[in-house]
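ugh ok fine here u go
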Amino acid sequence: MSHFFADDGSKIHLKISGRGSPLVMLHGWTASHQEWLPFLAQLEKHHQVYRWDARGHGGHPPTDAPAPTAQRMARDLANLIAHYKLDKIAAVGHSMGALTLWQYIRDFGTPHLSRLCFIDQSPKLLTDNTWQHGIYGDFDARKAAEMMTWLEDDFAEGVLKLTAFGLNKRATGKYLAGASGWERSRTALRAQNPQPLIDCWASLTAADYRDVLKRIDVPSMLVYGGESNFYRNETAHYVASQIPNAILHIYEGSDHSPHQWQRERFARELLEFID
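structure:
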């Protein structure tokens, strides 16, 4: 692992590989740089790929560093760009990574960005009487508070329940059946330090980036799962309608990680888009 220091002194771990123009890849909540491993063989032929572990995630040991809020992670991204002197960056953000990019654009604009890819995310996670494009289409303040109690009582199970009891009924069935993949996820989640991730979740659910979307002035590609655990197709079409000239791909049959379900297609379409 390589590393750089954020402007608050925190060490941020990342992997750097390949040669070519810079490609920065930002993983989802509770994940790590390993999320992007399946695509490296194709991507590093054309690009120098930067894959971090966001603070509080992956290989970072427990510290008293500031919590991984959306604002802090966006600043970490700015610190990464400055440290490695990057420009004309293609950036990919999945889930939390998409929110991090939207926060970065709000705070720092797009001068260093050339292409953007956002994977299966809503600009506002919580729903209310005027907004139904968040989690499940009905994840309001009451459900958000219930989710926080799940996370505080049993972090790993809370994360799994959030994923399992959503819009993807296949996921619900496999969770209730105790499928081996869910058990592997449970073990991985229990190995993590929960408090920074809980603080991170609170920040993400408080965010609203609807005003940012229309300000994105670089080419953008959107990838959504046709059977996302969290978002209906209407969310994908809303985001596509708000980002000027965005290209929308809906991967039918795929969940909240469409890039993992259709790996060859994602790598091909990403390279065609950013090159």
